[in-house]
Recover the amino acids of this structure.
């Protein structure tokens, strides 16, 4: 397995990923305030792994990144200044029922091992995700609309439109601070994630489904995302959700 990392000066994105010349490639822009975190996290996360990291980054940029990164680590037991106290994992309605029954959110590889009839490939296969990603439960900041992943999974192809019609699934709102405090929160320079599984009794704050927030199951990623976050904010206003400055 290989990942290529390129440092750019693009103003169009913080980071961008996709297949280039058959290699999963991540581009990190130095225009992003915290670019050095992503670069150093990626280097350190994959250093002793089975994934070969190919760096298209100058020595000077690596030195600069290290000086800014200081004593941080990809698995540090604290949230950084730009990381929210709450993070979300989104999934289908069918999967949500099994997660509630099991009491944990499991990574794709664990589910595949436990169920012979489980899906053949994860949705990330369509954009060239490497196999290693399937060992983790992927999380996102609360303000990122990952419902398009559920919609794409239903279609069997990547569709990034937030206004497409789909069957709403479930958004699990998790205590990121507790995950970090317990040393479970990992950063690979592209994702924030947890190895293997997340126990609901320890880290779940709340979850939304269309029924729980008063929507029809057939809706749009935009509507379900916005209404879920709105309802979460009403119920759990005590959680501080810092945004990047």
């Amino acid at each position: 397995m290989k990942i290529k990392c390129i440092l750019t000066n693009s103003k169009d994105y913080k980071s961008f990923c996709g297949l280039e010349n058959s290699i999963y490639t991540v581009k990190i822009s130095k225009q992003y305030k915290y670019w050095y975190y992503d670069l150093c996290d990626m280097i350190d996360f994959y250093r002793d792994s089975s994934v070969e990291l190919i760096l298209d980054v100058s020595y000077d940029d690596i030195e600069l990144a290290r000086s800014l990164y200081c004593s941080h680590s990809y698995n540090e037991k604290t949230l950084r200044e730009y990381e929210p106290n709450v993070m979300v994992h989104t999934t289908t309605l069918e999967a949500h029922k099994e997660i509630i029954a099991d009491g944990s959110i499991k990574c794709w590889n664990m589910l595949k091992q436990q169920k012979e009839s489980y899906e053949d490939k994860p949705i990330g296969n369509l954009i060239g995700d490497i196999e290693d990603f399937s060992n983790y439960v992927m999380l996102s900041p609360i303000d990122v609309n990952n419902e398009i992943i559920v919609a794409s999974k239903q279609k069997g192809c990547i569709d990034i439109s937030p206004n497409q019609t789909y069957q709403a699934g479930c958004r699990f709102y998790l205590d990121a601070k507790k995950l970090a405090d317990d040393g479970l929160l990992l950063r690979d320079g592209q994702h924030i994630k947890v190895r293997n599984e997340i126990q609901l009794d320890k880290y779940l704050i709340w979850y939304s489904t269309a029924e729980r927030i008063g929507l029809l199951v057939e809706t749009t990623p935009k509507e379900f995302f916005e209404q879920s976050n709105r309802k979460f904010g009403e119920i759990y206003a005590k959680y501080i959700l810092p945004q990047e400055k």
